Amino acid sequence: MTTALTPTAPWRATILTLYPEMFPGPLGLSLSGDALARGAWDCEARNIRDHGLGRHRSVDDTPAGGGAGMVLRCDVLAAAIDSAAAPDDPRPRLLMSPRGRPLTQARVRALAGGPGLVVVCGRFEGVDERVIAGRGLEEVSIGDYVLSGGEIAAMVLVDACVRLLPGVMGKEASGVEESFEGGRLEYPHFTRPRDWEGHSIPEVLTGGNHAAIARWRAAESLRLTRARRPDLLGPDLLAPDARKDP
Ligand code: SAH
Question: Which reaction does it catalyse (predicted)?
């Protein structure tokens, strides 16, 4: 297996936001920060307000039809997107949105395998609906709750992608065995000390029998997934009492 430690065209995240100073933020530390410093990926935050209108560089207006809050203008957002990504830019264009398709590890893996992302971060009540189709934005949600802006959601998305880039994680294997890969939650981990507050590490893990360890981990993985996330499992893997009658 070859690992591209210095890819010629780094994976590139362009983030459109009213708060570019939030980036790289936490992405500039630890695993993603080291990879950023090495040039394995690139983080470009662009200010939507640079395309704002008038003396006050206004970016939003009141909702048509009335109601609380403000809406990001489609003309302003479109200008920001057009200046950030040429029409032939191959990167997918995403809009962070609680109405979007929930993000999954499979989608993250696909995005990490591409050239990068252009991500629009909403604020206020959201964005004028017309810019979504007008600029081919794919709405992505990070979960069924509402944040005050798309920036933290974009960080979640970019972090999940960056750790899968070639050479970013210490061991190639750690990306394959963890939660959601293979449709299961990960098995429990233990490390020293062997005994702690009356609880010891399961004996099988310290016995050195690798086949037995693999069996134990697979069984724990299935047990946890059945208990916590049966929705991840096919009907054949559900515990007998959780199966629906045919
Ligand atoms: N009025 C909207 C919520 C706007 S929240 C509604 O009820 O659907 C402001 C911005 O935060 C959104 O435009 C989006 O960019 C971001 N945001 C909020 N929750 C999010 C979530 N769960 N996933 C992704 N982005 C989210």
Answer: guanosine(37) in tRNA + S-adenosyl-L-methionine = N(1)-methylguanosine(37) in tRNA + S-adenosyl-L-homocysteine + H(+)
